[in-house]
Amino acid sequence: MNACKTSPCLRDPSADPAVIIEEIITDAMHRLRQLGDYIDAHMDELSTTELARLLSVHGENTVRLGRLLRDAHVLSGEATDGLLDALGKALDELSTQLGIAL
């Protein structure tokens, strides 16, 4: 069953986007694992064309999952904290090298 259809928070317009994306990620990981298990179990039975198509779908879904994970990281605020920390360090280094307060 698809988490997008069964998740209570997806039907709630006031649900936290971070919670929603985590549920989608969990579902996507589960489905990716299922596809990988299917490929492993039936590799000897699949034609080259079928195997190529399934591996292509697996790769596409892996990319989508990576994007979802990145989006979840951004929604968590951790990405902003890391960027601000990096900017602060860069400004401190420039300030030291130039001998002026930035």
Termini gap? 55 Å
* Tally of DSSP β-strands: 0
Helix content: over 70%
Please report the number of helical segments: 5
Low-confidence stretches: none
Structural class: mainly alpha
Described by the principal axes of the CA atoms, the overall outline is elongated
Average predicted confidence as pLDDT: 82
Largest sheet at a glance? none
Radius of gyration: 21 Å
Number of domains: 1
How much β-strand is present in the residues? under 5%
Order of helices and strands: HHHHH
Folded structure, characterized:
The chain is mainly α. It has one domain. Helices cover 82% and strands 0% of the residues. It is built from five helices and no strands. α3 runs antiparallel to α4. The termini are far apart. The model has no long low-confidence stretch (mean pLDDT 82).
Could you give a quick summary of the protein structure above?
This protein is an all-alpha fold and 102 residues long. It contains 5 helices and no strands. It has one domain (15-98).
